[in-house]
Fold:
Amino acid sequence: MKESEIRTDESLLELERRLKNDVRSFVKKYTDLKNVPCPACGNEGNELAFRKDSFTFERCIACETLFVNPRPTPEMLRDYYENATSMDLYVKKIYPESEGARLKNIVFNRVDSIVAVCEKELIKKGTHLDIGAGFGTLCGELKRRGYFEQSIAVESSKAMAGVCRSRGVSVIERMIEDVEIQDIDVVTAFELIEHLFNPRDFLVRCHELLNEGGLLIMTMPNVHGFDIMTLAEESNYVCAPAHLNYFNPESIEGMITKNGFEVLEITTPGKLDAELVRKKALEKRISLEEQPFLKKVLITDWENVGAPFQEFLATNRLSGHMWVAAKKV
Ligand SMILES: [Zn+2]
Structure:
């Protein structure tokens, strides 16, 4: 998979332009951000990692989670997602245009992986909830395969919930705190936890919703991945106020275990790290002049070693995209 298959260059440029404006307005509007301890382990007193777009990123000295601190409150975040022009572009253009490619490159694999872990753990095929379901692509595909009795989208955005409904996906148009449904066997949350003011509260809520032995499956950025470690604040994933939490395999495991789950799998099946870093180098946003090894892998010998290098990252938990499956105990 290439990045251009899920986002065109033209859309990316426009997205970048709008994001800049959205962040600028946000920073101007909200100056009273809130201080928090490490969202993974609760440690206080952490070190400055860097600043980007007027936001401060700290690194936990205990568990190496990177996080925005101080950070916007849930109310500020709701306002941001409802009014950001970049979100509007995403909903009206980028998502619809790239849905076919996302289905082929991302969603089919996700569904296969969900089914595989459910089969392995002998999970009841009753009710599945997808939190932050977006356009309901995943729920739609699970419904088409008929794996669960029901697959329900939880999506608080009115526009996206509308799309879910229009394609026959059951949707609860609420935030997860306000979801009142029981007897859940599987909860999925893809690329969601990095956006949340309080990830711990989210885990507690998932724990309440799930049946005993139920599964929680999530994906998120891995701060110990090749792209984020190499690019740091230059990484496009490093963007506040959207992304506030950047866990690593150890810190997410610690947090999940502390909140009543047993971790079954933590893998990094990412496919884009090498290409993302290569792109930044080609665009001269970073320099590889002092990194002859990376220059060789990502530029000079790219055609031969790019793909196997990415494979190496993915199989050794060194990719920036992380997959986590855990069971309620
Ligand atoms: Zn920590």
User: Anything to note?
Assistant: The two ends are 36 Å apart (CA to CA). The pocket of zinc ion is lined by residues 38, 40-41, 43, 60, 62-63, 65, 251 (CB under 6 Å).
